[in-house]
Amino acid sequence: MTVRPLIAGNWKMYGRQASLLELDAIAARAATASGFDVAICPPFPLLALAAARAGQLGIGAQDCRADPDGAFTGDVNAAMVKDAGAAFVIVGHSERRQGHGETDAAVRAKAEAALAAGLIPIVCVGETLAQRQAGAAAAVVEAQVRASVPGAYPDGGLVLAYEPVWAIGSGLTPSLEEIEEIHGVARAALPSPAAILYGGSVKPTNAVEILAVPGVDGALVGGASLKAADFIAIIDAMAQQIRVG
Ligand code: 13P
Fold first, then answer.
1. Distinct helix (H) and strand (E) counts, the chain
2. CA dihedral sign, ordered 21, 46, 13, 235
3. Which of 93, 95, 127, 183 is catalytic?
4. Residue pLDDT, tens place only, 65-83
5. What is the separation of C-alpha 176 from the centre of its chain, rounded to a whole number of angstroms?
6. Would the pLDDT of 62 be above 90?
């Protein structure tokens, strides 16, 4: 079973065609990455444009609908994401769980649709601040993994991302011990091995120490993935971690 590390950037609802120049710089660095993968998940309108110039840089969408083609105005399904040239799709990001009422079952259905379309789903889980303060972080993440991750997937065919909701965009992160603990809980709840990324305020300043935490197989990066210089510094941190092992 191979667990291949991944540094993935989630551009969220940012970016225009001009942002593809940042993507070009990231792709140039990704082309020399060895022993791990690099991906950028731009918004839908940039997906095919990004895929056409990405080279070894993986491209992903940020969501997909679980259904096959149909009368669902405004929605995009996994087959369309694949057809646009993407290799990944984020599912179950907390901004969709919270903002669009996505349940664990809905997230799992999206992940299954992604697998069926030949995409690698990046399934997101993570506790809220209230849940962490109540001492429930491990139990919440374990339950989310069990209910959101499909029961079977190919070797290397699924990625999990642990993103504490309170760490996203806040500049706050859990302690390194807390990250290690939750990654261990998540790993034990997976049906088979998968890379587990940490996400939530990963920056050039903290990437080295976070990527060195046992059980952290990479990062899912929001804000710091929008500027090539910042994201490349995080890619460099991953390369350093791969070298020292
Ligand atoms: P930030 O890196 O901006 O905290 O966002 C993390 C995230 O939500 C990535 O999916």
1. 10, 8
2. negative
3. 93
4. 999 999 999 999 999 999 9
5. 19
6. yes
Which residue has the CA at smallest separation from atom 2 of ligand 1? 222
> Which residue out of 11, 41, 125, 163 has the highest number of ligand 1 atoms within 8 Å of its CB and is therefore the one to mutate?
163
DSSP reduced 3-state for 3: coil
Give the integer Cα–Cα distance in Å for 130 and 7.
28
Residue whose structure tokens are 């940490």: 198
Residue 245: pLDDT band (50, 70, 90) is confident
pLDDT tens per residue across span 187-218: 999 999 999 999 999 999 999 999 999 999 99
**Both tokens assigned to 225:** 């993935």
Is residue 211 helix, strand or coil? Answer: helix
Q: In this predicted structure, what is the pLDDT of residue 1?
A: 60
| Predicted structure pTM score | 0.98
Strand segments (E) across the chain: 6-10, 37-41, 58-61, 88-91, 120-125, 159-162, 195-199, 218-221
Q: Are strands 195-199 and 159-162 parallel, antiparallel or unpaired?
A: parallel
Residue 34: in which H helix or E strand, if any?
A: none
